[in-house]
Amino acid sequence: MEVRQHCDKRGPDGLRHVARGPRRVAWPRALGLCAALALAACGVADPAGREGAARSGNVDGGGAAAQPKPALVDPRPLQGAGAVAFDPARPQLAWAAGATLRMLDLEQGVELRRIEVGSAVGDLAIAPDGALWVIADGLQLWRDGALACRAEGVEPDRLLAVDGAGVVVAGYTYSDGIGMLRRQAWLDARCQVVDERIDPLPDGITGSEADPGAPLGRATLRPVRLPATELESRLPGMQLPAGAGVTGAVAVSGDGRWWVLEGAQGRTLWRRDGQRPGVEPTEGGPPGG
Fold it and tell me: How remote is the C-alpha of 12 from its chain's centroid?
């Protein structure tokens, strides 16, 4: 490759004389110079720099900026918490500590009330109208801090679903030659059994916690909790502070703003950062508990 070299000289006459002569440039150097100029003119980043950014997590493999994970912040211990339940209609959380039910206003961060139910609480759920279904030495329904009714002839182990008309519960027993049996019952808002069925657990289900239950029937019935597998799959998508000591997810509110997590210090309530009143949530689903 040959390029012209220009020499600007003034002669005796004072006029500018330009002398041109050949100068040889090595091919590899010239090509490299041209390529660099072309890339800079087109706004193309250096591939080596791109690889470094990808390794740091600033870009993904396709060149798009990596999206940061939503952060869970402001952990609040739920002292002695066992069963927990998010209110499906209001920003409230109920949790049980032994035989005591505690209600928390999530937005204000203040405790609303405590209810003594007389026996250790095994499970609980909140109806759309705010009533509390509680498994504690049988099935109970509480309204405005007072016992509304108690179910007779039902010995449930779990609450499966709830709506304004009632609740669905399940109890489990073992039968020789059959295995574990599920007795699923539908009760109305007066704690009266309106329907029930008995079935062996489906193949592959070895315990009551993994049992999804029989079909619920009414379209208005809302599952009390998310499946454990869904909670496990959603938690890695959240950012937790270093040293949080979280071992798993227990429950998440329907709008995804509030989480109850399990850890070395027991169960704690966390808030999704950026989700303030009036801000549309980006995730949803039935609450867990």
Answer: 86
Q: Which helix (H) or strand (E) holds 3?
A: strand 2-10
Structural domain count, the chain: 2
Q: Are strands 246-252 and 2-10 parallel, antiparallel or unpaired?
A: unpaired
- C-alpha 259/C-alpha 136 separation (Å) is 24
The domain containing residue 8 runs over which residues?
2-56
Taking CB atoms within 8 Å and a gap of at least 24, the contacts of 132-139 are 132/94, 132/101, 133/159, 133/162, 133/167, 134/96, 134/101, 135/159, 135/169, 136/99, 139/167, 139/169, 139/187, 139/191
Report the amino acid identity of residue 115.
I
pLDDT band, very low/low/confident/very high, at 86 (cuts 50, 70, 90)? very high
Give residue 11's identity as a one-letter amino acid code: G
Check if the beta carbon of residue 136 is closer than 8 Å to that of residue 122.
Answer: yes
Share of the chain above pLDDT 70, in %: 72
Three-state SS letters, 83-99: CEEECCCCCEEEEEECC
Average pLDDT (149-157) is 95
What pLDDT does 24 receive? 43
CA distance 154 to 192: 10
The token duo for 14 is 């004072």
Domain containing residue 152: CATH number: 2.130.10.10
Q: List the 246-252 sheet strands across, edge first.
A: 72-77, 266-272, 258-263, 246-252
pTM here is 0.72
Residue 137 shares a structural domain with residue 101: yes
Query: Average pLDDT of 173-202?
Result: 95
- Name the DSSP class of 239: B
